[in-house]
Amino acid sequence: MRTAALLTLGVMVLWAQGGPTARVVDGLAYVWIEPGSFLRGCAEDDSECFAWEPPAHEVTVQGFWIGRTEVTAAAYADDGGNLPAANVSWHAARRYCASVGMRLPSEAEWEFAAKSGAALEDVAWYDGNSEDRAHEVAQKGANAYGLYDMLGNVWEWVEDAYEEDAAKRLLKGGSFYNVARDLRPPNRLWATPETAHRNMGFRCAGR
Ligand SMILES: [Ca+2]
Question: How confident is the model over 144-190, as pLDDT tens digits?
Fold first, then answer.
């Protein structure tokens, strides 16, 4: 593969044939997700759906960048190394993403990028294996897009408000203290945008 690197204003972009595929912002790697359509929400053959999951419906997303890992404590506050930044409110997560020229992913983008194709045990820290604590990012296997910890470790804020309560914002993916069912990509948690908790973090996205 033909590659070249460009380092400008702290943003490094790696090109493969056809265009950029990965770049580094604020020390964190971002992966380009090609546009596509998928069946979002609770699939008809999924017996584990929760009542708050939207029914399956086809959604098309444009191409976008998304963090290869959750934002780390080192990137967020230069403290805590490769543990995910946690205890971060939706407002603070949004401010951080904006400060590095990115934004929070939409719920649809996040769900599209959460394809796993692997056994949960291989890709996620959750109630069954985490010892009730967050782990350094990228210690488990990557998902089909090369993204780490989309499922489990810390819940991840997305941009969207909860349709049933517009004052709340959504979180995705479950965390180190959730059971396997909670980690299913269509599941969601909602909280006021001021909420901060040790199992809530985020990753950034952009175009
Ligand atoms: Ca996560």
Answer: 999 999 999 999 999 999 999 999 999 999 999 999 999 999 999 99
- The 10s digit of each residue's pLDDT in 111-137 is 999 987 789 999 999 999 999 999 999
Distance 157 CA to ligand 1 centre (A): 9
- How far away, in angstroms, is 153 Cα from ligand 1 center? 5
**Total number of domains in the chain:** 1
Ligand 1 centroid vs 25 CA: distance in angstroms? 19
Q: Assign residue 194 the CATH number of its domain.
A: 3.90.1580.10
DSSP 95: H
Distance in Å, CA 23 to ligand 1 centroid: 20
Dist. CA 43 → ligand 1 center (Å) = 21
Q: Please choose, from the candidates 61, 149, 65, 60, the residue with its C-alpha nearest in 3D space to the C-alpha of residue 102.
A: 65
Q: How crowded is residue 148: how many other Cβ atoms within 10 Å of its Cβ? A: 22
Range of the domain at 177: 3-206
Task: Pull the structure tokens for residue 202.
Answer: 């985020």
